[in-house]
Structure formats: C-alpha cells, structure tokens
Here is the input.
Amino acid sequence: MIFRLFGKTLKKVSEIGLGLSQFSETRNKKFYGYKSEKEVLSVIKYAISQKINFFDTSGGYGDTEKILGKLSKEEKKNILISTKAGRKHDGTRCFQNNYLEKQLDKSLKNIKTDRINLFMLNKPKFQEIEKEDLLYFFEKLKKKGKIQFSGIIIGDETNFSKIIERHEIDSFSVLFNLNNTNQLSLINKIKKKKGLIIRSPLNSGLLSGKINFNTQFHKSDERSQYFTKETLKKKMIKIKNIQKKLKIKNSELLKFSMDFTLSNQFISTVLVGCSSLHQLRQILLYHSKTTFLDKKIYNDALNYSK
Here is the structure.
C-alpha cells in the first residue's frame, strides 16, 4: 500500500480508502443489500490487514459507525476514521450548529471514541457556510477536543475557491473519475494545501467493466433512482467512446479507471465502495498493479472525458 500526505496535517493516509456506504443495510435481514455485522467487520479488518488506514462512514450508513466502534483501541489508534453530518434521513440538509453537534455526539458514542479523526460537512452550499458560520464552528469543535480534523464534501463548487486556504478547513472531498472530470479545476486549486479525498472513482460501478446498456438496478439499489434508462444510456455511450479511443477492454476498465484517478499527484486518498470482501480483494488485486499513466495517455483521457 502506498501512503500519501493528507494535506498539511502531517498525517499519511493510504491512497486507497474504504467507503462504507455500501454497507448501509445492516439492520433489516429482509431488505435488499443486507449485510451482517460480522460480515462488515470482517471486511474492515481485512482492509486494515492490507494497510488501508482511511475509513469513511456516516450516521446514515446503517450501523457502520457502531461496527467501527467494535475495533480495539489499538486498531482505532492506527487508522483515520472520517464521519459526516448535514444530510438528514429524508434527504434534506441542515447545517445549524446545534444539529451538527448533536449528530457528532452520536457518532462519538457509536464509534466509542472521545475524538473523531475527521468530521466532514455533507455538501453545504457556500451561502450556508457563511450563514451558519461553519468555519468558526469547526474551530469550536477542535477546541472542545471533539474532532481532530475538519472537512467539507463539495457538491456545488460555486465560490469554494474563496475558502480553500482557510486554516479552519483541513480537507475537501471531491467527485472525480474517468467519466466525470468537472471538478478538476477545483482539485488543481486545492493541490497539496488540504487533504484531498476522491469519492466514486468507479462512477458508482459504471467504470467497473461489468455494467452495460441493458443493466437494470434493483429498485432498492440507490442507483436505480439516479441512473434512469436514459441517463445510463448517455453515460455508457460516453464510457464506450473513451474505451474505443484509448483502446481499453472491459476487463481493463477498472484498473485503468483507478490508475487514471491515482495518477493525480494532488490526491490524498481515493474511496472505494465495496459491498463484499470479494469486491475489496478484487480492487486491491488491481491496485497492486497500479501504475501512473503516461502523461499523454492521462491528458488524452482528460480530453475525452469532457
């Protein structure tokens, strides 16, 4: 496993981080996608054994916070746990200080720790950051000893360049993959000034090489809500076009997609979402063969992705 500096925090994180959103169904055995606590814990422990030290969770990801809480003090000491708040269960967002701190307190209790390594706000708009004085809020939480580092998950990037260098923020999470490079300019502005977390490197599985025009997602699979038949068709046409121009076979698409993302030197860690131990092993197998893309190939991929 390769480790990269997490911005200016002096921490080093594994360039592959484990996102736990795929384990959101840990409560209802009859529900689609159910995973037992034992199964999820085994995936987490395997990840740790493979030197992954960055774990992304949330109070909204089923019981994953509580499962992380079952790790020993020594195990938790050697990893960085990131959790987030701001998005309610009904999909609405709230960034009032009192609400956020209550969510943080629940996370502290679930993870069984006195301090969260990284506390992130889930896609606040720039106006909400100003209105709720969220940067000062971060400082208060640090002074109270509740969080070590702070971060913001960026949805709408409007005006975020104004606060990239603010000392109150330690990291940003950005969407970036072979099929979506819209936030590259923001990545280039953030550079090594902050920890940079990349989410959805495989575009919710579309870049795994296992999805095609006829793929139908289960109605309980979150992807069925945002990958309508027409949306999926549009995205797959773009992916197939990139594959054709760069001569990438389906069997090579996952590795190329991971190589593409990790070739950006400014990125600290790339979150992979796995729904099973088998999937994690497969991704780590590809990762063990990761190579930085040739500069021309990387730039060609960027151009074809626009």
